[in-house]
Structure formats: structure tokens, C-alpha cells
């Protein structure tokens, strides 16, 4: 599913002042046409106040199903031209929740545009949508396990995984989430328990609705507390990749808003959503490949090593010299830890040993989970299965576009600007 979209829309050139390499909008124009609340710095020159470094913080546009965020940037960051940045969750905007949702790129991209335009907050005729770009897409797939306890074990197993530049990070505020590549401008990944996140959303919305009695909060609560949503969230492990424009381009895909909102683009590139997700998560998932045994059962490990690595001698008997050496190495890893043992080998030798372990049925993730600590978590024999064909409930119906929903039920679905 497409879980989040960020779009930058530049202003029409006739409203932009160009001085050398600098392009900006007049502060008075911003105040009159958009009514935006700006913050900045005030200095005094000869007793006269001088305002500088004006900036606009993200503002929220609430709706019946979810909120949309936007901010005005006056050409002061990586984009030299002044623009409006719009960020929204298409699944929530279209259906009131993001426990599951559509991967229809055109539907989701247009949803962000329509939600912003319907708000009436900004005169959209000043914006040059033809040159709008997609800054990032959050692409998410879900795997289900039998219980929350098993899901927590999966997260614990991820704590020691380090693949290239992708190293896990756990924020104490979000104990059921593991982050990878945090701060990267190419892609960022996170794996988390959806049921925990959903319960927090329900708790927050319940308090807000009790305090305000606003209808759009009541509609949101109705959606996220429905039986089908709660059932799908149970045992759900979310694997979410935020893929930025530079990575999208490097994979050969466009970041042009005009192209991506056209249904024909995904029709010509049907693999685009899976491709973006796999490009981010493949290194992490590869660490779990090859696991066919319990790494804490030493007898099972030794027998697997002997089965995979033996030599038949001239007299017909079997030699297990290599298996014995690998088992000795395995014992060192389990007692002193993966990282400590790795440092005692050169890179080429260590790489060969890892392949030999994987050939016997031990995954890289299982080995990495041995830290040398007595309290080490038992790693999973089987990781999680992400089935691309089973990402939606059987009764899922693709939502209508925001425009069509508004036309059918304007009293129910509304933007509150």
C-alpha cells in the first residue's frame, strides 16, 4: 500500500521575484493571498524593527477522515524556487485508516492534490502543478504472525541486524518500532507492530472527540474501530519504506507529479510499488534467508553442518574435518558474540564462512543475534512471510477518488479549513 505522499508544488513564475540566483515571493503577497501565519527574527537597526528569516511551519488541514499537512517555503532550502509542500496519508484520507489500503499510484497521488484543493485554504491558481514533483513515497507491506508475543520476538531479533549501512535503531518512545537508515535521504525503513500503533490512535482520537465532539473525529473513530480493521491489525508486522526522490529516479522511475498522477504510468510500470519497497528492504530480508533450524540447538546445528560439509575418503568413509572446524567457529560465535568473532577474521575469509553456514541452514540474522550476552534473545527459525498477493482483506473494495466521494456525500466527507 501507499502510506504517505509528499509533493512540492512551485508557484507560477509571474508571481515570483527573481534577483540573480534568488527567487522569492513578496511577504505582503503571501499574507494577502494565503493568510499564512509566519514566524521569523526581529532585529533593530537605529531603533527600527527589521524582520528577517521568515518561515512558515507545517499547518494541518483536518478532514472527515484524516488531516493533511502543508507549508510554504520561500525558496530557502534545497529548492531555490518558492513552493508549497503538501504531505498526506492517502489511505487515511480515502478510507479513514491505514491498516490496509490501495497501491493505486494515480488514486493516491490525486488524493493529496484533491484534498489540498478542496480545502479552499489557498488560491490554487497561483500554483504551477505542471512542474510539481513527488518528494517521497511511503510504501508499506504487512506480514502476519500468530500472536503479539511472536511479533515482539521478531522485533527483538532485528535489534542486532546490521547489513551494510542499514543498522537498526530503537527509539525509547516507540518500543515496538525498529528503524533502519534513519536520516538517510535515499530511503528509510521501519518495522513495527501495527496493532500497537492502532491502539494509540484510538486512544488519542477518543480523548480528542470526548473533549471537542467534532464530527470529523467521530467519523475517524468509526473507521479505525471497525471489526475488519481491528482483525487485520492483530499480529500485523508492518514493513514500511520511505523512498525519496533521488532513489526513485535512480531506479528509473519518474518523480513528476503530472506523470505519476496519470493512470497510464502505473499501467506501463506495474511493478513500481513492489520495486520501490524491495529496493529498500531486500538487504534486510536477505539476512534471514537460509534459516531452516533452531540455532540454539547445538546438536541440530552440528548434524546440519556435517550433512552440508563432508568429504568421502578413498576407503569410502566420510571425513567431517570442515564441519568440525565450522562447528568450533559456531561455538565461538555463540559464546563471544558475532561482532567479536568477526573482528578476528579477515573480510574474505569471514565472507566464505558465512556462506558455508548459510549452506547448512543458518541465516545471517541468526548468527548476528548472538551478542555474547547470557540474556540473548532466541532468534527465529522462520522469519516473516511477506505475501504480496495477500495484502488486503477478502472484502476490500478500492475506495472512490476523494472527488467522487465528495460529490456523493458532501455532508459526510468534508474538509474543515
Task: Describe what you observe in this structure.
With 417 residues, the chain is α+β, with helices and mostly antiparallel strands. Helix content is 39%, strand content 20%. It is built from 17 helices and 15 strands. The protein has helices spanning 27-34, 90-95, 105-118, 148-158, 194-212, 215-224, 227-233, 245-250, 257-260, 263-268, 272-286, 298-308, 321-336, 338-342, 347-360, 364-368, 402-408, and strands at 2-10, 17-19, 22-24, 39-45, 48-55, 59-62, 67-73, 83-88, 133-144, 168-169, 177-180, 187-193, 236-244, 311-312, 318-319. It has a 9-stranded antiparallel beta sheet. A two-stranded antiparallel ribbon has the order 2-3. A two-stranded antiparallel ribbon has the order 4-5. It is elongated, with a radius of gyration of 26 Å. The two termini are 28 Å apart. The model is unreliable at 375-381 (pLDDT under 50).
Kindly list the characteristics that best describe this protein.
417 residues; 17 helices; 39% helix; nine-stranded antiparallel sheet; alpha+beta
What percent strand?
Answer: 15-25%
Number of helices: 17
Count of individual beta strands: 15
Terminal CA distance reads 28 Å
> How would you sum up the major sheet?
9 strands, antiparallel
Average residue-wise pLDDT: 82
Overall geometry comes to elongated
Assign a percent range to the helix content. 25-40%
C-alpha Rg (nearest Å): 26 Å
Structural class: alpha+beta
| Order of neighbouring strands in the sheet with most strands | 6-7-8-1-9-13-12-11-10
Residue stretches low in confidence (pLDDT < 50, at least 5 long) are 375-381
Amino acid at each position: 500500500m501507499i502510506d504517505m505522499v509528499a509533493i512540492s508544488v512551485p508557484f507560477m513564475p509571474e508571481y515570483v521575484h527573481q534577483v540573480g540566483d534568488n527567487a522569492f515571493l513578496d511577504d505582503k503577497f503571501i499574507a494577502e493571498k494565503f493568510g499564512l501565519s509566519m514566524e521569523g527574527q526581529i532585529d533593530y537597526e537605529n531603533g527600527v524593527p527589521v524582520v528577517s528569516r521568515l518561515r512558515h511551519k507545517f499547518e494541518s488541514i483536518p478532514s472527515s477522515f484524516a488531516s493533511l499537512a502543508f507549508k510554504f517555503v520561500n525558496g530557502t532550502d534545497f529548492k531555490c524556487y518558492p513552493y508549497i509542500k503538501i504531505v498526506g496519508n492517502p489511505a487515511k484520507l480515502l478510507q479513514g485508516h491505514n491498516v490496509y489500503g490501495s497501491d493505486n499510484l494515480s488514486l493516491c497521488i490525486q488524493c493529496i492534490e484533491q484534498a489540498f484543493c478542496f480545502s479552499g485554504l489557498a488560491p490554487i491558481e497561483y500554483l504551477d502543478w505542471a512542474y510539481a514533483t513527488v518528494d517521497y513515497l511511503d510504501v508499506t507491506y504487512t506480514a502476519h504472525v500468530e500472536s503479539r508475543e511472536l511479533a515482539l520476538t521478531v522485533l527483538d531479533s532485528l535489534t542486532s541486524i546490521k547489513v551494510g549501512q542499514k543498522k537498526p535503531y530503537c527509539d525509547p518512545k516507540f518500543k515496538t518500532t525498529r528503524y533502519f537508515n534513519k536520516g538517510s535521504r535515499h530511503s528509510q525503513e521501519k518495522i513495527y507492530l501495527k496493532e500497537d500503533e492502532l491502539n494509540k490512535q484510538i486512544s488519542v482520537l477518543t480523548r480528542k472527540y470526548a473533549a471537542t465532539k467534532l464530527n470529523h473525529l467521530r467519523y475517524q473513530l468509526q473507521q479505525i474501530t471497525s471489526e475488519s480493521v481491528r482483525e487485520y491489525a492483530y499480529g500485523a508486522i508492518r514493513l514500511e519504506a520511505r523512498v525519496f526522490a533521488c532513489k526513485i529516479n535512480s531506479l528509473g522511475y519518474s518523480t513528476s507529479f503530472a506523470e505519476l498522477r496519470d493512470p497510464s504510468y502505473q499501467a506501463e510500470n506495474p511493478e513500481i510499488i513492489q520495486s520501490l519497497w524491495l529496493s529498500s528492504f531486500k538487504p534486510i530480508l536477505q539476512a534471514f534467508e537460509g534459516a531452516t533450524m533452531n540455532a540454539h540447538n547445538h546438536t541440530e546445528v552440528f548434524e546440519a553442518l556435517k550433512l552440508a560439509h563432508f568429504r568421502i575418503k578413498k576407503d569410502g568413509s566420510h571425513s567431517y574435518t570442515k564441519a568440525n572446524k565450522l562447528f568450533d567457529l559456531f561455538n565461538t560465535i555463540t559464546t563471544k558474540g558475532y561482532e567479536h568473532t568477526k573482528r578476528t577474521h579477515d573480510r574474505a575469509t569471514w565472507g566464505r564462512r558465512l556462506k558455508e553456514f548459510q549452506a547448512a541452514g543458518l541465516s545471517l540474522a541468526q548468527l548476528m543475534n548472538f551478542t555474547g550476552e547470557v540474556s540473548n534473545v532466541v532468534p527465529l527459525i522462520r522469519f516473516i512471510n511477506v505475501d504480496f498477493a495477500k495484502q488486503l482483506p477478502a472484502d476490500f473494495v478500492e475506495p472512490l477518488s476523494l472527488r467522487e466521494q465528495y460529490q456523493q456525500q458532501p455532508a459526510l466527507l468534508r474538509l474543515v479549513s
